[in-house]
Amino acid sequence: MKLSAFFLLPALLRECIAYTALSDTSLRALPPATDSDFNIKDGKLLAPILIPRVPGTPGSEKVLKHFIDFFTNNLPEWRLSFQNSSSTTPTSHGKEIPFVNLIATRDPPWILDGHEGEVGRLALVAHYDSKLTPTGFIGATDSAAPCAMLLHVAQSLDASLTKKWASMEAEGAGSGLEDHKGLQIILLDGEEAFQTWTHTDSLYGARALAEEWEDTMHPAMSTYKNPLDSIDLFVLLDLLGSAEPTVPSYFRTTHWAYQLLASVEERLRAAKVLASSPKKSFLPEAEKDESCRWLGGYIEDDHLPFMARGVEILHLIASPFPHVWHTKDDDGEHLDIPTVQDWAVITAGFAAEWMDLEGFLESKSERRWEEEKSEL
Ligand SMILES: *[C@@H]1O[C@H](CO)[C@@H](O)[C@H](O)[C@H]1NC(C)=O
Ligand SMILES: [Zn+2]
220-260, pLDDT tens digit by residue? Predict the structure, then answer.
């Protein structure tokens, strides 16, 4: 019997994701996380999220609108979709509370409607809801700052993705031999418990999304059978933005991705483009080996419903948790902004390598030249 090469190809392609480390020139060309985006008073990305945003309240709607406006006005190539659900909670007195997840996706332009099952994606994920108590809780590290970091990643890579895909198309992309990689930002609602953390009082948005995506089948013969399967790696950011963070490598099966991220951090530091100067790196466990302790599974977070369905997880959560965790002090004033900016740039660098953007990041001198030209 003979297996046709045609049937073997998609499976093989999934195994060999192209990955080129960024050169120093490209690392330096990554857009900086600026004060005008990350200032806690009026920073365009961060400040609008630093308000109470409990699911089903006006604060939540305002923050969701901020995300939608950000993509619609600045990044129109991103496809926005919602995944909505509702549930009673221990504090809702029988009333259904709405939960709205926002998903922003950029796929290669040659992926036409009905072919979504051919794209493998890097999913960058954070929750945007805030905790009901203590009253007035902001949740700056939990997870307003991580959400702003993800907006920064989308904004940083947008033009380079356009350039890269245009050049691939010029070379005849779409013929089926290159891998089709997309980038997805998932902003989840309802992570926090309303009363005390249990399996039913927590992860409202994540549970609804994972369940719905498992049941959303792509056309038969698709490379990826449903939108969950399309996630090559689920990178969850949480509790980031305090000074001197330590993020361990939690999962043996994605330690390779942790090592790539740690290498991006190390090279960005060596290139002197980061703003903070911590005593040790944010990601100190790149050298950890098989015999070490892997703590994955001990921290319950939005990855759980995805992990239970076989999605590969890279969990970027500080351990120990920030001192301000679940207190009123987890607000803008207690963020360490250079650390927030560095996480944004490191995550963008990792995503740029994942999306193979070497050669497509505009150098600063190029940018300055463009600006000068437009001033003439
Ligand atoms: C989900 O909720 C959002 C925000 O309320 C709304 O704009 C959107 O239309 C809803 N989508 C669906 C599919 O119901
Ligand atoms: Zn929390």
Answer: 888 999 999 999 999 999 999 999 999 999 999 999 999 99
**Cis omega before residue 322 (within 30°)?**
no
pLDDT in tens, 18-47: 678 999 999 999 999 999 999 999 999 999
Structure tokens at 325: 């965790």
Q: Whose CA is nearest to atom 8 of ligand 1?
A: 82
The dotted CATH code for 2-375 is 3.40.630.10
Higher local confidence (pLDDT), 9 or 31: 31
DSSP 86-115: EE--TTSTTPPEEEEEEEEEE--TT--TT-
Closest residue by Cα to residue 258 from 295, 222, 210, 215: 295
From 65, 69, 84, the mutation candidate for ligand 1 (largest count of ligand atoms within 8 A of CB) is 84
Residues 157/348, Cβ–Cβ less than 8 Å: yes
DSSP-derived letter for residue 124 is: E
pTM summary value: 0.92
Mean of pLDDT values over 156-175: 87
pLDDT at residue 373, as a whole number: 58
For residue 99, the ligand closest to its alpha carbon is 1
Active site residues: 191, 238
Q: Residue 18 and residue 12: Cα distance in Å, rounded?
A: 12
Paired with 84 in beta bridges are 100
